[in-house]
């Protein structure tokens, strides 16, 4: 694994391995009472993340740089965790990380589905899912066109989320762009016990994490994973910094210009202030 800045932790510990999954813990020594972590993030990778432990797990460098103990969940196939080994792996993880450690599950896209699916079996305190899919089965989501090749290579859809999403005081935070048609329709299908919260990030498209980085507010996301920030905190930060984000300005500003909205000139001013020449060129005809 490539070296990265951060605390001097022991080598990763393989918690579970099977043909479908590999789970690695990265953090302080679990057997050292003085340094045993109070919180651990369980990270589920997106569909195209490689099954290559030597390169480090999805998000691992970012977590380690910030001193966040974490478990990387590697998948060997882009199957949305529709395999017989998933719940066995989660059971083994909860067995190793005793109940004195609070867990937050976290993932993006396919990984967002995994984070929600695993939250109840792991008795996680919180799940944070960025742009998750509810399903890629065309019989369930006929509007979903992005993952036809993955679905063709998969077996049957095995896990019914409604059987695992119980109202047990668990918080599930879903970050999504409501202007992104497919992500919006996917999120609408998720079971929504009382702990389900939608954190809207308009204009981010299917690139929510990159948009937070672009706006300079990704640390609020990491605070959320630590349990130190809420969905409201992230939403407020997004609103305060949205005028600095290219994706937000492009998506929302273009819609406003197309509809001759009185706010459209404000978006042009923001684009000029940020030096977004592509947007300036795109919108200039509306002022001619």
Overview of the structural elements:
The structure is a single chain. The chain has eleven helices and eight strands. By secondary structure, the chain is of the alpha/beta class. The chain has an eight-stranded mixed beta sheet with strand order 1-2-4-3-5-6-7-8, with helices on both faces. It starts with 12 loop residues before the first strand and ends in a 5-residue tail after the last helix.
| Shape summary | globular
Read across the widest sheet, the strand sequence of neighbours is 1-2-4-3-5-6-7-8
Please state the CA-atom Rg, rounded to the nearest Å.
20 Å
The structure class reads alpha/beta
Helix run count: 11
The number of distinct β-strands equals 8
List keywords for this structure.
alpha/beta; 8-stranded mixed β-sheet
């Amino acid at each position: 694994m490539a070296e990265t800045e951060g605390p001097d932790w022991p080598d990763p510990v393989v918690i579970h391995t099977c043909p479908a999954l590999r789970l690695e813990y990265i953090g302080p020594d679990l057997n050292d009472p003085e340094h045993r972590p109070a919180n651990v993030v369980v990270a589920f990778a997106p569909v195209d993340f490689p099954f290559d432990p030597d390169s480090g797990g999805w998000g691992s460098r970012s977590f380690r740089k910030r001193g966040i103990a974490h478990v990387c969940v590697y998948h060997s196939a882009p199957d949305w965790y529709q395999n017989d080994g998933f719940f066995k792996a989660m059971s083994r993880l909860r067995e190793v990380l005793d109940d004195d450690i609070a867990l937050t599950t976290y993932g993006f896209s396919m990984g967002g589905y995994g984070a929600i699916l695993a939250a109840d079996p792991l008795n996680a305190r919180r799940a944070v899912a960025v742009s998750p899919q509810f399903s890629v089965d065309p019989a369930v989501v006929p509007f979903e066109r992005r993952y036809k090749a993955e679905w063709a290579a998969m077996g049957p859809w095995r896990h019914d989320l409604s059987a695992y999403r119980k109202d047990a005081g668990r918080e599930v935070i879903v970050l999504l762009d409501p202007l992104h048609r497919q992500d919006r329709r996917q999120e609408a299908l998720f079971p929504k016990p009382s702990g389900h919260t939608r954190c809207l990030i308009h204009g981010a498209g299917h690139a929510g994490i990159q948009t937070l980085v672009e706006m300079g507010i990704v640390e609020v996301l990491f605070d959320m994973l630590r349990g130190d920030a809420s969905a409201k905190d992230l939403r407020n930060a997004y609103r305060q910094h949205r005028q600095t984000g290219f994706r937000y300005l492009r998506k929302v500003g273009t819609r406003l210009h197309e509809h001759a909205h009185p706010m459209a000139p404000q978006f042009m001013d923001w684009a000029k202030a940020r030096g977004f020449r592509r947007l300036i060129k795109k919108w200039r005809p509306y002022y001619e």
